[in-house]
Amino acid sequence: MHAALFALLPVLALATPVDKRWTASPYVGSTTTDLFPPTGTKVNSALFPGETAVGYPGVTLTGVEPAAIQTAPVYPYSDETASEFPLVADQPEGGSNFDVFKYWGNLSPWYSVPSSYYGLGDASPLTPEGCSITQILLLYRHGARYPTSGALPSSFAAKLHTAAVNSTWSSWGELDFLNTWTYKLGAELLTPFGRLQNFELGVEMRQQYGYLLNNFTSTDTLPVFRTESQDRMVKTAENFAAGFFGVPEYLDQVNIEIVIETPGLNNSGAPYEECTNSNVASRGSIGSTLATAFAVNAFNSTLDRLNSQVSGISFTPNDMVSMLQLCSYETDALGYSAFCNLFTEADFENYEYYYDLSFYYNNGYGSPVAAAQGKGYLEEWVSRFTQTPITKWDAANNHTLDSNSTYFPLNQSIYADATHEVVVLDTLTAFNLSSLFSTGALPTKQRTNSSFKASQVVPFGTHFLTQVMECPAMTPTKQMRFLVNDAVLPIDKSYAGCSYNKDGLCSFDNVVSVLQKRIQEIDFNYDCFANYTATPGVDYNGRAPRNA
Ligand SMILES: *[C@@H]1O[C@H](CO)[C@@H](O)[C@H](O)[C@H]1NC(C)=O
Ligand SMILES: *[C@@H]1O[C@H](CO)[C@@H](O)[C@H](O)[C@H]1NC(C)=O
Ligand SMILES: *[C@@H]1O[C@H](CO)[C@@H](O)[C@H](O)[C@H]1NC(C)=O
Ligand SMILES: *[C@@H]1O[C@H](CO)[C@@H](O)[C@H](O)[C@H]1NC(C)=O
Ligand SMILES: *[C@@H]1O[C@H](CO)[C@@H](O)[C@H](O)[C@H]1NC(C)=O
Ligand SMILES: *[C@@H]1O[C@H](CO)[C@@H](O)[C@H](O)[C@H]1NC(C)=O
Ligand SMILES: *[C@@H]1O[C@H](CO)[C@@H](O)[C@H](O)[C@H]1NC(C)=O
Ligand SMILES: *[C@@H]1O[C@H](CO)[C@@H](O)[C@H](O)[C@H]1NC(C)=O
Ligand SMILES: *[C@@H]1O[C@H](CO)[C@@H](O)[C@H](O)[C@H]1NC(C)=O
Ligand SMILES: *[C@@H]1O[C@H](CO)[C@@H](O)[C@H](O)[C@H]1NC(C)=O
């Protein structure tokens, strides 16, 4: 190391001669003052009641405490590049150097996607040269959670348990661990790692955009950050706020607005509670059906291999998905899972594709109800950034809240809303962000390399960011762009009037006018309530076919 330093010195000496001298600014070394929080501000818990007062927490089933210090085969040192601190996952069967965390669809921990993936090789999330960011809007998903109620892993556990009660079965070899395995997962709640993800996102946002808090100067106004009433959603917003404002400061510096999520009530963060077609098999959930069909043939050789290591019980293709999900869920909740190394790299690629199909056709361009479900949030975006109250109620947003400036302020420099992954994707579809879907409808029978990867767009902690900025050298000076998990998205292909820009920028006013047209184009009532049949395998641009 010293030798290397010495070797560099002559070069440094040569480089040191000054080519340019700067004069010190008159402000150098002085202390500048921030304006936030304005003295005397207080959270108003009468206007913004907490979780218990709001109710509707959904299922809150706790699981068994993790014990990774005893169950994990290796320790999660923080400098291990191939791990997801503090989680540990084995390499796939027969594999090495495979980043298994990136093949779990919506159960993957979020990771940075390079802008080059969508064709903007030079774009960075940092403020483009010559611009300054004046306003942001963040839509983010909760961190890692337990399975939702009634998901596959618990049925798999019940199958093993039932078979053990009335008969005997045994397993050996790679499946030896199953003889003593128990089901330890709860349901719906955030896991410790999930809390970390939301807290860390809050810390990151504060570090990058803290200066925007200086816009909150009035003593009667604190930022309003929204979420839904489910327990994990409330905890998500609280962990984000704790990361952003600090503990206990977050209790005093932000109004967390908890919007009820329950069937029949309008809530842009949970539009499927209102949009009934989203739960109809031939409309809103064609993706789930396609994914299940794909899984029937996708794991054959592993199915045979695992079935050859049990007697008295036999596994089905569906059990392969359950066991892959146990790999993801146990790792996300307990820190390690013995299920992961039962599967091969090809299995994980098919597992990711299973989710790609499910999400592309349930909530992406292949869905007939995705744009309609994202329309409420789209209308809120336009309302907030143009400071124009919503007057036309034609989507799943909440009239009472959205027409009241206490609950839906139109002049914040920072907006941050927590939601579910399906809503993030519905929203991206409503925004017509076609670069996410540029390779077209996903083939339903055979895995291919499509531009849409669920683990990049809907993972735990996923976030969709709008940056609005002033760029004095550009015309017009007010510009903006969209980012998903650090990737800057090109919008020139689906936004008329936006031309290619290496930083993904487009005129703010032009984007607003495109999005206003998009609002007109999306027919919430038809897509959500009409009697039509959608065909799997089609790029619908997220809107229903007119075949009623
Ligand atoms: C075991 O078999 C008995 C008799 O057939 C049945 O009543 C019971 O429900 C079974 N138990 C389980 C756990 O399947
Ligand atoms: C937004 O406008 C309201 C009403 O004029 C005002 O009370 C509030 O302080 C403003 N908030 C911010 C963040 O500027
Ligand atoms: C809006 O949300 C509030 C509280 O979350 C709820 O009481 C109300 O019924 C909702 N309104 C509509 C129109 O859905
Ligand atoms: C996988 O197995 C199923 C029967 O379980 C069979 O119908 C199918 O052809 C097999 N697929 C492949 C690709 O081998
Ligand atoms: C929800 O919004 C829709 C569309 O604006 C409206 O038709 C419906 O009455 C609202 N539901 C409730 C419960 O307010
Ligand atoms: C907005 O909500 C607050 C608190 O519930 C209420 O006092 C106020 O009257 C509402 N404003 C309007 C315009 O409805
Ligand atoms: C926040 O304040 C800065 C500095 O005064 C200003 O340039 C920017 O436009 C403000 N942002 C909003 C959304 O008002
Ligand atoms: C898959 O497609 C993406 C972009 O659509 C591309 O960046 C990547 O290199 C492709 N991978 C393979 C293995 O072809
Ligand atoms: C949305 O994208 C589709 C397909 O890329 C395009 O046909 C349509 O014109 C776009 N909508 C708007 C309002 O730009
Ligand atoms: C929807 O349309 C189909 C085919 O036209 C028809 O069979 C069915 O009865 C209709 N369902 C409803 C609820 O109207």
Automatic annotation (TrEMBL):
Q: Keyword Hydrolase, does the record have it? A: yes
Tell me which InterPro entries the record gives: Acid_Pase_AS, His_Pase_clade-2, His_PPase_superfam
Give the signal peptide range. Answer: 1-15
Pfam families xref list: His_Phos_2
Q: List the GO molecular function terms.
A: acid phosphatase activity
Alphabetically sorted, this entry's keywords are: Hydrolase, Signal
Annotated PANTHER family:
MULTIPLE INOSITOL POLYPHOSPHATE PHOSPHATASE-RELATED, PHOSPHATASE, PUTATIVE-RELATED
Annotated protein name in UniProt? 3-phytase
Q: Which organism is it from?
A: Saitozyma podzolica
